[in-house]
Amino acid sequence: MAGALQNATGLQRWDSPESPPLLALHGFTGDANDFAWLAEHSRESIDWWALNLPGHGNAHITEPDSLKLDDFLDAIEVARRKIVAVTGQRPDLFGYSMGGRIALHTASRNPAKWRSLITVGATPGISDPIHRMDRLVADEDLAKRMRKQSIEEFLEAWQAMPIIKSQESIPQEILGPMHTRRRRNNPTQLAAALVAVSTGRLPALWDHLSELDLPYLAIIGQMDLKFGQITQKMRPYLPNAELASIPGVGHCAHLEAPEAFLELLQAFRARLH
């Protein structure tokens, strides 16, 4: 593994042995425990698993400059094999934002390994090479600033961004602990992850969406206009996918409206039987 993960990726499970498993991938600055509330409130129907992606939580990187997408995919594959070994079942794959982007890359490489795919606020990438380069330059500039800042300084600016600011509507019992965990992150580690899986660096998947031969539920928050447009643009490439919008919330729809999200997720999974 080129990025050299120093510690385990912190694969966690919220036991529900009688239910089909689901592996969850968090967003940028998050960790596996971002899904704790969802897992605890759906134990009867979902066997939740989640891991810390490289550079987040305890998934420290010893060689940040060499981190790349394959390191993320390798960590996910290790988790998938563990889940299959324990449960004997193919897991569903769920990802939010950065985790959703990585989930799309994971599923596109081998959709048969997964029972289904669920994303919230995900993009297949940037097709235009000039726009992709612009995004990479912007993310590299942000990463340089992050390496010079304390985690508190970075988070103050990050959480003020419009796409992140809607998270203020997340219920406090979820948001408070999430903010505490965010402050435990290391800016240098986060910077490496930001650049490694930047939409400016990853290949665009638009031409490969039709190869996603598995059930797919793409969710957006109604107020997340940018990703709403992206998801609508995905529709012609995914004629068999289900698209859902959660009213009154933004980018982090699964936590801004957790009950509504769980209703969508549980109904989707019930249709897979």
UniProtKB/TrEMBL annotation:
- The main enzyme category here is lyase
Asked if the record carries the keyword Lyase, the reply is yes
A molecular-function term among this protein's GO annotations:
2-succinyl-6-hydroxy-2,4-cyclohexadiene-1-carboxylate synthase activity
Record-listed E.C. numbers: 4.2.99.20
Source lineage: Bacteria, Pseudomonadati, Verrucomicrobiota, Opitutia, Puniceicoccales
Q: What is this protein called?
A: 2-succinyl-6-hydroxy-2,4-cyclohexadiene-1-carboxylate synthase
Native species of this protein? Answer: Cerasicoccus arenae
UniProt keywords (A-Z) are: Lyase, Menaquinone biosynthesis
Task: Determine the domain of life of the protein's source.
Answer: Bacteria
Q: Where is the AB hydrolase-1 domain?
A: 20-258
UniProt xrefs under InterPro entries: AB_hydrolase_1, AB_hydrolase_fold, SHCHC_synthase_MenH
Q: A Pfam family matched by this chain, by name? A: Abhydrolase_1
Cross-referenced SUPFAM superfamilies, in alphabetical order?
Answer: alpha/beta-Hydrolases (SSF53474)
Q: Which GO terms describe its biological process?
A: menaquinone biosynthetic process
